[in-house]
Amino acid sequence: MIKPKYLFGLIAIILLFLGMFFVKGDYFSEKEESVMFENDNAFKVIEPASISLKKDGKLIKVGAISKGSTFNYLEDYGNWYKVRFGESIGYIWKEATEPIDNLTVKDNKISGNLLTVVKTPVYNSTTSTDPIAEINAAQHIQIVSKSEKGWYEIELLGRNLFVKTKNVIEENNFNVVKNNKNISVIKKSLIGSPLNRDLENTTENETINAANLILKDKVKFPKYNQGEPMDFSKGINWKEGQGVSQEHQRSYLRQLHGLFFISDLTSAFYTIQDENLKEKYINKGMEIIQDWENNNPYHAPQHKMAWHDESTARRLSQLIDFFETGKHHLNKQEKLQLFKTMVFHADLLTKEDFYSYNTNHGMFQDEALIIFSKYFYNFKAFSEYYKLAVNRLDNYFDSLISDDGVHLEHSPSYHQTIAASIKSYGNTLEEFGDHEIANSFEKKYHEMVSYATHVIKPDGNWPLIADTYASDQPISSFWPNNKYYQYAVSNGKRGEKPKSTNMVFPDAKYAIFRNSWNSDEKESTYLFFTAAYHTNYHKHSDDLSIWLYNGEDIITEAGPHSYTLSDPITEYAYSSFAHNTLIVDDKGLPRIDGKTDRTYIEDYNLKNEEKPVVKGVNKRFDGVTHERKVTYDKKREEISVNDDISSKKRHNFKLLWHIAPNIEPIINNNEIILAKNDEKIMKIELSSDVNLSLSKVFGDEDKIYKSWAFDNTKQDVKSNVYTLVLEFNGTKGNIKTKFNL
């Protein structure tokens, strides 16, 4: 039995011992265990410097330190200091620092890890206003203690410093919102369809079949490998696609690295009832995502398309959809790893040097940020991502939609795509409560209907201008209440005839003339003229080119072939040689050269409905001016094209006219008869004030002047066609080409 005189002393010792571990009765405080000591490995930052980690032999920036701040290093390592960064070793460039006297530091007990969810400022104290360091998003740092005032005390580079709680998350406390209030809006408006859609006219479910194939390491990309599943049983080849032609590898890799096919698993997940199979879908999806991550780190991807601007955005959207679908099946570590991956993606999409300004790729980047910020709405820091994305979207639509309502990436198909996106974003932002910007988007959407109406040919298709493919089609579900669009898209079966047959879009630099809105396409004439060069995206060397339809396509262009610019055939499709334009000294214009103000519509006259006129100018060739005036005399049923070409120096000039497939030109002096199946379908007459020579080429019979047409709806995409070549030598010349309809 303890004697009373010793009892009080024993109690005091026990209370003192317990006091080392408890503060305010309940909370464990590692801070009280910190031991102060002097460290002679101190340095001062004399110019802003990066904090880097070594990964795969490369130094990767993970943060930065400010001039004047002081830290401690672990080891002097040649030109570098090794420093403590979370559980890793970081590196600081020594020449950005100078040694200082001993710095007092603490020997901390680490209580856990934080994940930075955004770029995170680091402060000397909770009362500091200027950060002394900054840590990139998706980085791990160590906790010393948590303050009740919205701060964490952390250990970084040998110092006890502070970060705000809103910028980080405790890894052990990462939780998912069970019933996400925004998920229905996100899925309805922003998450795309599965890669393999279920077809209504079949008894099988194509999406479920595709998902089950993935379980067997086979992935079906409908547009590639003749639609046959690709075998990934030996691992996914992230560098190239099996059975994919070289010119289509880039487009395929965009889908592959965008993880588009993961959507087959998530869509099938909600269709089936078998819980066992659902579990397999999620496990396989996670396996694929981890494989992608392991093989494609940002600093060393297997292929550049892994971190392509659009692929990255599309992948983030897929990852969020997968995360939502699998959140009750993934374990805690898998969910945290997925979250970290998504945080890195989202942070990357906010960076100015990664953002694709004023392009549809940038639009998809903003879309992904909206999805991310609204899905993880419980993180206040992500609200800034949402504001950034909406602001950039608004700026994009303002800059890439012309004053006359045309999307300025040169392609009718992209005009439709962007119009659909504007409509979708407007509806989505309305549901998120952003009424003002939603109304602005709705207004833009309706302003785009005029061009969408008039650009449709009498056969219901688009001219294959720029990157509009034969498989791209006008969609009747757009502008359902616009009677003129509905008439054009249905070939007169619905709606009402538009009032005008002639339209010029001077800001967009297009002109479209037709004889009437006759519902009989065989009796219809249509002319499309372009003088447009607005941006690098989807631009072809088609300056002052024409597309002519008269009962059928007559004067056409090659059309697009692929997006692989290194492919010789694709290079041709983009070139001047594939369009109805000017060639100087056997050379065409580069696809892009920044001279966006050197091609334009100079004048037009629509006062006489029966005789519209438009004049375009092209000054992109050095020292050469090409003026093209197009007049459509509807009463006389003829289209006249007047080309004036001038230069201070003597050149060889050629004008090209591409003839539609299956039509043969028969040359008789300055007259050309166009025949199809031995029947005359049009006469072309030429006149000139120069010594003009006329010839024709077919397919690849000429070394320089190829003549092809591309139709991606056919098994043989490339076909040989005729091209008329009008040639003269000199400093100037006038050529008149009359198409007798």
UniProtKB/TrEMBL annotation:
Superkingdom, taxonomy of origin: Bacteria
Localization per record: Periplasm
Annotated Heparinase II/III-like C-terminal domain residues: 504-734
Cross-referenced Pfam families: Hepar_II_III_C, Hepar_II_III_N
A GO molecular-function annotation: lyase activity
Signal peptide interval: none
Keywords: Lyase, Periplasm, Signal
Entries under InterPro entries matching the protein: Chondroitin_lyas, Hepar_II_III_C, Hepar_II_III_N
Segments forming domain Heparin-sulfate lyase N-terminal: 201-472
Cross-referenced SUPFAM superfamilies: Chondroitin AC/alginate lyase
Major subcellular location class: periplasm
Listed name of the protein: Alginate lyase family protein
Source organism of the structure: Virgibacillus dokdonensis
